[in-house]
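Posting this for the archive.
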Amino acid sequence: MTCVFEEYTFDMRFSGDIQPMEHKIGDKVVYPNHGVGVIEQINFGVLNGRTEKYYMIRISSSGLKVMVPHSNACTVGLRPVIRNGETAQVFSFLEKGKCNSHHDWKHRFKENSERMRTGSLIEVAAVFKSLVSLSRTKPLSFREKKMLERAKFLIVSELATARNTSNETMEDNLVRSLAKAHLQMPTNIDKQEQF
């Protein structure tokens, strides 16, 4: 899949190239492929004879609790929720960005899976837009439908958190952005699902 990003410039934490960050209790963060969570605790433990700081994160949508070592936070893609001002860049990409999907579904699925794992919201938006576009010309496989639902969920939940609004409002904004690109959500994708 090829997506044109040249006109979209993002700071380091937004693009997926994450610099080591210190988080504090109460910070809203994004854990790749799971979505927005809140740091509820910061603990210390011993790992391989070394004292290590751990972030205890509760994923907002599922209640799942994740423990991430500070030294591994960048590697797994843990990052802060994007800022309110950066949300316009995501909508701009959805409205004007170009995406082309690989013709072979196995290669396409592999590329999209890799993009989803980056944790970068613009990469997730690229997967979302390419699958919506592809669904206009051919039916999506079961796995691609699930990926589209997941990408939609991740985009809506992070944008809603960044703009301090409801998921429903953000989903409406997402639909409007797709309409500006002459795209629409496939009819078989349900309203915002929780995972």
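The radius of gyration is 17 Å. Strands lie at 2-3, 28-31, 35-47, 50-59, 65-69, 79-80, 99-100.
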